[in-house]
Amino acid sequence: VRIEPLHDRWDLEEMCAELLNAQWQRSMGARIHSLRQSSYNYPLCLLLLKGERRSQDEKLIGHARLSRVLGSRSLFVESVVVCSTLRGKGYGRILMEGVERYAKGRGCTRLCLTTHDKQHFYAHMGFVLSKPVQSVGTLASFMPMEVLHKFCRTAENEEKGEMEGELKSDGDKLSLKLLKNCAPTTPFHFPPPPLPPNSTSAHPPPPSPPPLGLPIFWMHKDI
């Protein structure tokens, strides 16, 4: 079992698209287009392979996508998937360990990811809950990171803004306090809309709101 970048194994492109589409349905054209963004300069796709290289016994059993995180030496890990027939056999851990080795070999110091329901698995891998980060995705392939860092919001910029807020002058704080004191104590309410005219025709009830989405857990691991 080994890890290889997709941009070194374009012969497995369609097989990789099928593996991803089995988990997250998408048109093959769109999936192939996304996979072809994989390159050494990020974003890139890592493949978990089993069997002798370039032989009939070689099988693609896992995939993970890596992209750079703005303003740091971190990588964002996404689209982590293992072939459905091989789940529960430890390949997910092998895949993530391979991702970690690859990232460390490229000089990265942290892996970041999100999950809806696998937070316990990642916790066993050493990940902890963290703040959201900003992945640059394919933007880094045609725009310098310095430019992206200047125009995009990062956790570092937010911390800097918090520090600047704490260093406001007493006059600014006093002005803010006065503004708060001048705010109305009771909120203004618009009058309700008029009732619709009576009608003998039956109207169907309004559609129920869509169910709330699953919670997103942001996690990271220092490597």
Polypeptide structure, described:
The chain is α+β, with helices and mostly antiparallel strands and 223 residues long. It has one domain (2-163, 215-222): Aminopeptidase (3-Layer(aba) Sandwich). The protein has helices spanning 13-23, 28-35, 91-105, 119-124, 145-151, 155-166, 170-182; strands spanning 2-5, 44-50, 59-68, 74-82, 110-115, 128-129, 217-222. It has a seven-stranded mixed sheet with strand order 1-2-3-4-5-7-6, sandwiched between helices. A hairpin with a 5-residue loop joins strand 3 (59-68) and strand 4. Helix 1 crosses helix 2. It is globular.
Integer tally of domains: 1
Provide the helix percentage: 25-40%
Instruction: Report the CATH topology name.
Output: Aminopeptidase
Count up the helices: 7
CATH architectural label: 3-Layer(aba) Sandwich
Primary descriptors:
223 residues; seven-stranded mixed beta sheet
Task: Give the arrangement of secondary structure elements.
Blueprint: E1 2-5, H1 13-23, H2 28-35, E2 44-50, E3 59-68, E4 74-82, H3 91-105, E5 110-115, H4 119-124, E6 128-129, H5 145-151, H6 155-166, H7 170-182, E7 217-222
Parallel strand pairs: 4-5
Antiparallel strand pairs: 1-2, 2-3, 3-4, 5-7, 6-7
Helix pairs in contact: 1-2
GO molecular function: acetyl-CoA binding; N-acetyltransferase activity
Region (Disordered): 189-211
GO cellular component, one term: cytoplasm
